[in-house]
Design brief:
two-stranded antiparallel sheet, 61% helix, mainly alpha
């Protein structure tokens, strides 16, 4: 699994949208400007998010289609990249190679995929928004000597 630029920008844009769309629709241009992301690239990202029904366009801007605490990181990643799981090993192995392949599948690939599910399905956009706002507040309260 690779956390691609498309996925990273999508998560950044959704955190921004969650933070700024409480009372109004948010334009892609304002999201792009605040986060130094190409507006054209962001349009492609939001097309995928619209198809997955994570966001909706309205009145010249965007809104989350669901409350941020109902949108999981796994939904976002799947909307932008497809499956985030490590691929299963396939092949016509025989003998010891078959046993080793099955061991790798069960002890590594399946365990990594299970752990990814645990993390990404239990981490919401609201969690990311809250962490971001806390870091922003901590930065404002930081004193430099």
């Amino acid at each position: 699994m690779k956390f691609s630029k498309k996925c990273r920008y999508g998560v950044i844009a959704l955190i921004d949208l969650a933070m700024h769309s409480r009372d109004t629709h948010v334009s892609l241009g304002s999201i792009a400007e605040r986060n130094q992301i190409s507006p054209q690239y962001l349009e492609q990202v939001f097309a995928s998010l619209r198809r997955a029904r994570i966001v909706r366009s309205s009145q010249g801007g965007y809104l989350l289609n669901y409350p941020a605490d109902k949108i999981t990181v796994s939904q976002i990643v799947e909307a932008l990249e497809g499956s985030y799981h490590l691929e299963s090993e396939t092949g016509n192995w025989e003998g010891t190679a078959s046993i080793v392949t099955e061991t790798i599948q069960k002890d590594i690939v399946d365990r990594v995929n299970d752990r990814l599910d645990q993390i990404l399905q239990n981490l919401t956009l609201a969690d990311l928004e809250q962490d971001c706002m806390q870091r922003e507040q901590d930065e404002e309260n930081m004193y430099y000597i």
